[in-house]
Structures are given as structure tokens and as C-alpha cells.
């Protein structure tokens, strides 16, 4: 074999290996999972989109914020519930809210999928693989990552993602201030 051919084959093999390593890295980033979430929404596939949201953890975190906010704003309600002897008022409120919040999260994912991920509702994700790297600010705090981006007319959205054993990432919680802002918004239809 001529030396030039061997060098060419080695260069091609090295380039292929480099491309595969870069692709392997990209597939393990939060941005790639967000790209796949947005793609599922644009395909109107709510089940595929829900694989990128840990509904139970989101509901737990949001329920804690909602309960704490309500009990801070309505101290008489906390006193009344406390006088009934229901145990920890906050924990009771969180347990009661959790299934309602989980239902709301699932309904929002279904609505976003029905609309094809259109820029409506409390969470509008950019479409496209490159957009997912340019638009999202990702701050890794192992084992999680905080993702934030600005939505036109809606302010900053910030949420936590956790990496799964298959290297994909799932949304596990929204920023407490974001949840409080959503409480003041009407329910999207």
C-alpha cells in the first residue's frame, strides 16, 4: 500500500473517531435533552416529551413552594389547620397539592404537544439543536444542572435538570420564583 493511502485512511479514521466522540459528548448534555424535548413537542408527541420531565419531582418541589407561599400569605389558615391537629400543616398541604400539581404539569405537557410547542403558555422552548446550545444558559452543579433562558414578554425561566443513567437529562424542578410567578398567571387553555 502506498504511504499516502495509509495516511489518508488513518486521517479519515481519526476524523471519524473525533466525530463519534463529539457526538457522544453532545448526547450527554442538558441542551441535547432539551432539543429532544422540543422536537417531541413539535411532533405533537406528549408521551415522548414527558420522558424529559420528572413529573413527580417537579410536582413535589412546586407543591412545597405553593404551600409555603399560601401559608405565609394566610397565617390564619395555617393556625386553623394547626388547631385541627392534622400534624405538620405544611406537610399536609404539600401532600394534598402534589397530585393536583402533577396533573397540571401533565396537562401542560399535553397542551404544549397539542399546540406543537408553539410559543404559548408558561414554558416555550426554542426549537433546533443549535438553538438549544445558544439560547440556554447551563450552570452545572453536579450531579444537577440549572438551566435558564429569557422568554419574550415572560421574564427569565429557570429550572433544574438531573442526569439519568442513560445519560439523558430530565427537568426535576423549577425555580421557586418562577413557580410563584406562575401562581399569579391564568391557567393556559
What does this structure look like?
- The protein is α+β, with helices and mostly antiparallel strands and 189 residues long.
- It has one domain.
- Helices cover 59% and strands 15% of the residues.
- The chain is built from eight helices and four strands; from the N terminus they run αααααααββββα.
- Strands 1-2-3-4 form a four-stranded antiparallel β-sheet.
- β3 and β4 form a beta hairpin.
- α4 packs across α5 and α4 packs across α6.
- The termini are far apart.
End-to-end Cα distance: 68 Å
Strand arrangement in the largest pleated sheet: 1-2-3-4
Number of domains: 1
Which structural category do the helix and sheet elements fall into? Answer: alpha+beta
Strand content: 5-15%
Number of helices: 8
Query: What does the overall shape look like?
Result: elongated
Radius of gyration: 22 Å
Helical fraction: 55-70%
Strand and helix order: HHHHHHHEEEEH
Largest sheet: 4 strands, antiparallel
Regions with little confidence, pLDDT below 50 for 5+ residues? none
Mean pLDDT: 86
| Count of β-strands | 4
Q: How are the SSEs placed, and which strands pair?
A:
Layout: H1 3-27, H2 30-42, H3 46-50, H4 55-73, H5 75-83, H6 89-114, H7 129-135, E1 137-141, E2 144-151, E3 155-163, E4 169-174, H8 176-183
Antiparallel strand pairs: 1-2, 2-3, 3-4
Helix pairs in contact: 2-7, 4-5, 4-6, 4-8
Features of the shown structure:
alpha+beta; four-stranded antiparallel β-sheet; about 190 residues
